[in-house]
Design brief:
Layout lengths: L17 H7 L4 H14 L5 H4 L7 E5 L5 H10 L7 E7 L6 H20 L9 H18 L8 E6 H5 L7 H13 L3 E3 L3 E6 L4 H17 L5 E7 L12 H18 L4 E8 H6 L4 E5 L7 H14 L15 H10 L4 H15 L10 H18 L1 H12 L4 E3 L16 E3 L6 E4 L1 H14 L1
Parallel strand pairs: 1-7, 1-8, 2-6, 6-7
Antiparallel strand pairs: 3-5, 4-5, 9-11, 10-11
Length: about 450
């Protein structure tokens, strides 16, 4: 009887559990050490970089589609996890559609940490102005949070004497924060007892500011904690990388908000994206280009074996079982263009076929290629335009396809399986080596 496996076997998305992230990380250990060292030396742990007016910008991890950016970023974050006074927040930007959804999600997560931190603070002995400020800012942040429920305007009343204490007894740097807070709150009216404010819906940059305000409040309460924020797949607000004016505007708005957030004391922002987007953002600081750290066949084979060993559910047996012979496994890595995400997609398909067959022996390269020839024929019936486009490219001995109007691959199983968006131009799809290998001979025979 063949081994039994968890349903997460060969899932291309980054695992969630820290121990699994560590165990499945392979092949970029030296790069990991170098990037962790850059962050240790460059993070604004005490806020000194902002106070000294040193340049700060979002750090970016970039590379080709499915090159392992997300897993690398999460593995980096584990180097700084569970440290006193250190918080980590991760938001996946993919398919959030617009920038404000990403920034709102960041606000919600930091707001949760802000509320938790306040529960640990003793307010006895605090100056009256500071106790009042904490109360008022807490109330304002709570009401800002209501905008996530669909409200488009919220009315907030604060005692006039205490509201104006927001700006009392603070240094010049914090004073500018509170003056800005008053400006973001919208129109209001004041009488002798109450200041009534009409909160307007926050913008993306407002959310960045509110995050910085909460961090600033905690700093004044001697909770000068550091916040390390990850925005994953920042260029993929849409599932498809669109080049429309609206899509470009949303990506630009997100970048501007993250740049604004990175200016906050004790906050560092890390972004993952594909390289073309990363290089278009002049104020992003490159942590690493993963295209400079390709994974050889042996490393990808090690990743595949690590997945098999980790997700095996009948743990009584020894590790090391595999359903592919060595030649097939190493060639599979090359046919995936050495991209770990693509490689895992291919492994998931191949193992799905293997698990339905009665023969429990290892499979050869010929068997592996047959699996994907069959898969192409199945998808051809479902996506004839995509399949015909791919066949035409291969007949014409072209390794790529340029999108003119309609994209034949987006939203189909062909994308990130037989084709992949170009490293240099999102309008171009590269034909992956697997597609060339499994289709060239049959197409040649037909012609």
């Amino acid at each position: 009887m063949p081994p039994q496996f968890d349903h997460l076997l060969f899932r291309a998305e980054t695992p969630e559990k820290p121990e699994t992230i560590r165990k499945l990380f392979r092949g970029r250990e030296k790069a990991l050490e170098q990037v962790a060292d850059i962050l240790r030396k460059g993070m604004d742990l005490s806020g000194r970089r902002v106070r000294n007016q040193q340049r700060k910008e979002p750090w970016v991890i970039h590379g080709q589609t499915r090159s392992g950016k997300s897993h690398f970023a999460r593995r980096i974050f584990l180097e700084f996890a569970n440290q006193p006074g250190h918080h980590q927040v991760t938001v996946l930007a993919r398919e959030k559609l617009d920038a404000i959804r990403v920034m709102r999600k960041l606000f919600e997560k930091v707001h949760e940490g802000f509320r938790d931190a306040l529960q640990t603070i003793t307010f006895d002995g605090l100056p009256d102005f500071l106790r009042t400020r904490v109360h008022n800012v807490t109330q304002i942040m709570r009401d800002v949070d209501y905008f996530g429920t669909g409200s488009d305007r919220i009315t907030l009343s604060i005692g006039s004497s205490t509201f104006f204490d927001l700006k009392a007894g603070i240094d010049s740097a914090s004073a500018s924060n509170y003056m800005k807070l008053v400006a973001t709150l919208g129109a209001g009216r004041t009488d002798s007892e109450q200041t009534t404010l009409s909160l307007r819906p926050p913008t993306s940059e407002d959310y960045a500011f509110y995050i910085s305000l909460m961090v600033d409040i905690l700093s004044q309460l001697d909770r000068g904690d550091h916040w390390l924020i990850l925005v994953d797949d920042a260029d993929l607000l849409e599932n498809e990388f669109k080049n429309s004016p609206e899509a470009r505007r949303e990506r630009s708005e997100l970048a501007e908000a993250l740049i604004e957030l990175s200016q906050c004391e004790r906050v560092d922002v890390v972004v993952t994206s594909r390289s073309l987007y990363a290089r278009s953002q002049k104020e992003f600081f490159e942590l690493i280009d993963l295209s400079d750290h390709p994974m050889p066949e042996s490393t990808l084979a090690g990743i595949q074996q690590a997945h098999l060993d980790h997700y095996r559910t009948d743990k009584g047996e020894e590790d090391g079982w595999n359903f592919l012979d060595e030649k097939a496994l190493l060639e599979a890595a090359r046919l995936a263009d050495f991209l770990p995400g693509v490689f895992l997609n291919h492994m998931k398909t191949a193992f799905g076929r293997y698990s339905k067959e009665e023969d429990e022996g290892t499979r050869s390269l010929d068997w592996y290629l047959t699996v994907f020839r069959d898969r192409f024929q199945s998808w051809k019936r479902k996506y004839p335009t995509s399949a015909n486009t791919l066949e035409q490219c291969i007949r014409g001995k072209s390794g790529e396809y340029r999108v003119s109007e309609e994209d034949p691959f987006w939203g189909t199983e062909f994308d990130n399986f037989f084709t992949i968006q170009s490293y240099f131009d999102y309008r171009i799809y590269q034909i992956l080596p697997l597609a060339l290998k499994v289709l060239q001979e049959p197409i040649g025979d037909q012609s």
